[in-house]
């Protein structure tokens, strides 16, 4: 499914200027049909999956208790 720049901005909750800038930088793949840019919505699914995966990994890391190290010596 292809989206216009305006629809993509709404989908990503950002501005149309930001979407246009990302297209020009090559960070969002788009097809120019002569008048408008058309963006394939499928390209964002992988990105969102990776973001969720890394958020879970970070949360798991933060929730992991700090192990007691029996070799730690209190040297005052």
From TrEMBL:
Question: Which InterPro entries does the protein's record reference?
Answer: HTH_17, SinI_DNA-bd, Tn1545/Tn916_Xis
Helix-turn-helix domain sequence ranges: 2-49
Which superkingdom? Answer: Bacteria
Q: Which GO terms describe its molecular function?
A: DNA binding
Q: Which residues form the signal peptide?
A: none
What Pfam families does its record include?
Answer: HTH_17
Q: What is this protein called?
A: Helix-turn-helix domain-containing protein
State the organism of origin: Oceanobacillus chungangensis
